[in-house]
Amino acid sequence: MPDYIGAIDQGTTSSRFIVFDKTGRIVSVAQKEHEQIYPKPGWVEHDPAEIRRRVEEVITEAMEAKGLIPSDLAAIGITNQRETTLVWSKTTGKAIYNAIVWQDTRVAETVRKYVAEGGQDRYRAKTGLPMTTYFSGLKIRWILENVPGAREGAESGDLIFGNIDTYVIWNLTGGPEGGVHVTDVTNASRTQLMDLETLQWDDEILKDFGIPRQMLPKICSSSEVYGHAIFAPIKGVAFAGDLGDQQAALFGQTCFAPGEAKNTYGTGCFMLMNTGEKIVPSQSGLLTTVGYKIDGQPAVYALEGSVAITGALVQWLRDNLGIIKKSADIELLAQTVNDNGGVYFVPAFSGLYAPYWKDSARGVIVGLTRYVNKGHIARAVLESTAFQVLEVVEAMEKDSGIDLADLRVDGGMVVNNFLMQFQSDILEKPVVRPVVQETTALGAAYAAGLAVGFFANTDELKAHWTEDFRWKPCMCREDHDRLSHFWKKAVERTFDWVE
Asked: What is the pLDDT of residue 497?
């Protein structure tokens, strides 16, 4: 049996390849960024050919760095930026347009049209998702409507669709020479084209969106053998795990029991709670999605809360205001004061995500007096992340009827001890950081390892999960209630700013 398992982590800004050992520790890693393309305001694209090159380069680098050969890897998993949309020719392998990234808002007018005809929740019962610019379905429609020859190519069977996972697997398993055209249930659940119950493409929605079924990939589980690599550094290795990035983090954090949840702190925050084999419709502004599916077992579902601006607010303080020189400086600056001085910062720069979903909201700083200094502003910036997560947790507990025992955390901001302690205080729950914080790639590796017997079962994965640090709440009830009250009051001040 080989000693290692590999994972491709194809994110929004970079591609990585990580090799893990049997205990989930990192053996080798390589990372390369790719270009962000902004053709018009609100449009965000990636060059598919560049992404393919970057993936091949990081695989080569990580394998060569430790002198690894294909037979050293038991299998490879992939995790990816979700919702990002690609259409390419299965004959030539060339994309007919750049990848349209999940953040792209070019279909806003189309969304308004569909909402006017049938309401924002017209497909929520089937897909768990509201009508927004976020998901892949209307991005596919845009390509078919706006790229010359696209609809004819799709209807003839030459043009095929995939999110980034599908594109990478197809290329690395053969491309035009027999590449495997697959996706998994987690990525499929973010297209707004899959029925959550049947786990199949929904013909009614495809008809509404004008998308030919034959261009869509086969929907598979998140953990099974899809095909084998033809790319030399990993030739013959099985592709056996596939999860969207946030679901992969849920898997990597071993949140396998209903009620277990993880929160990833990055540019924004993405929190997922395992709801078991039960589809839980949200009444509180959350998304219902597939958490994961292991081959031969029922799908496991999740509730998801998305917060648009968290780490990005620290960058804003650094780049736009120049209050700090580097992001890490914010913790020390925030600790120069004993409290927020009455200041609350709601970063609704492009509207509010969960649980409000208000496009017309805009950011506010409230509670300013002559007493306030840059330390108070820095503290309010960090506290805003924790407050936004609190509102998502409250919505999740309300929807699921499950009281969260603790919150498992990962992502770039979890090294900020002040933020993590305040998060625990405002949640009134323990916050737990694992030893291995590359949980997204680890989740993809775990899924692949399960499929080929490298790992015996999820109990073995849970045994590998190790706690690095646990923050416990220590704020008095009076302070907690006062801070929460004024945060909610501040949020209300952002509503309907854009007329």
From this structure: 87
